[in-house]
Specification:
- With 211 residues, this protein is of the alpha/beta class.
- It has two domains: 2-18 and 86-208, HAD superfamily/HAD-like (Rossmann fold), CATH 3.40.50.1000; 21-83.
- It is 38% helix and 15% strand.
- It is built from nine helices and eight strands.
- It has helices spanning 21-35, 41-49, 55-61, 66-76, 79-84, 110-119, 143-152, 168-176, 189-192; strands at residues 7-10, 17-19, 86-88, 102-106, 128-131, 161-165, 180-184, 200-202.
- It has a six-stranded parallel sheet with strand order 5-4-1-6-7-8, with helices on one face. It has a two-stranded antiparallel sheet with strand order 2-3.
- Strand 7, helix 9 and strand 8 form a beta-alpha-beta unit.
- Helix 1 crosses helix 4 (66-76).
- The longest helix is centred in the first third of the chain and has 15 residues, at 21-35.
- It is globular, with a radius of gyration of 17 Å.
- The relative contact order is 0.19.
Length: 211
């Protein structure tokens, strides 16, 4: 399957790396204290991993002011602490062996992404890194994907590309940009609360093989 594609784009959090649960619970405890509304471990997991779909829709369903939540969340988060609690999935090192252009397209902000790439020593895996913003757009918007493609110098004529990620927004972004989408299911549909479609559905990159 790997050799089917001329270039690869990948999501970061939940796809190649993840964060230790104690860090997540600590962040949500502090956010909850500031908002005056506590979060259970399950609620923190749902928002952190985007289980069940849109984080903003879920927050609104719980009666939480979305803008205030994210302002508080980003104020609480410490980039270095997050990097120190971030680990690489065992199967993620397949990226280092990919031939052809490889890019990262992540919702994780630049100030959080950079320390993770540096601490885990994986920056050289990627030929471009695109961190989504309000200006660039958020997956499933195709613009961040198309920006990465421009950076890589690949287009639609004669190039077959793929985007791999752990969430439905990753597959949506791939399809909206005209690419194949690989869904990497790190949680299972029962824990996620839904089944995510994709051109390929895997639980580990080791399932891809080398052909």
């Amino acid at each position: 399957m790997v050799s089917e594609y001329d270039f690869w784009l990948l999501d970061l959090d939940g796809t190649l790396v993840d964060v230790q649960p104690d860090y997540v619970s600590g962040v949500f405890d502090e956010v909850g204290d500031r908002l005056g509304r506590g979060f259970t471990d399950r609620e923190a997991e749902i928002i952190w991993h985007g289980l069940g779909g849109s984080r903003n829709e879920q927050l609104a369903e719980w009666g939480i002011d979305v803008e205030r939540f994210w302002e508080t969340f980003h104020d609480v988060e410490d980039a270095q602490a997050r990097a120190e609690h971030t680990y690489l999935y065992d199967d993620a090192d397949f990226v280092a062996d990919l031939d052809g252009p490889v890019g990262l397209v992540t919702h994780c902000q630049q100030y959080l992404t950079d320390p993770v790439l540096d601490r885990l020593d994986i920056r050289d895996w990627f030929d471009t890194v695109v961190c989504c913003t309000e200006e660039i757009g958020w997956k499933p918007d195709p613009e961040p994907v198309e920006m990465a493609m421009r950076d890589l110098g690949v287009g639609y004529n004669g190039h077959q590309g793929v985007l791999a990620g752990d969430g439905p927004h990753d597959i949506g972004a791939a399809w909206n940009a005209g690419l194949d989408g690989i869904h990497v299911e790190r949680h299972g549909p029962h824990r996620r609360g839904q089944c995510v479609l994709g051109d390929h559905r895997i639980e580990s990159f080791s399932e891809l093989g080398s052909d």
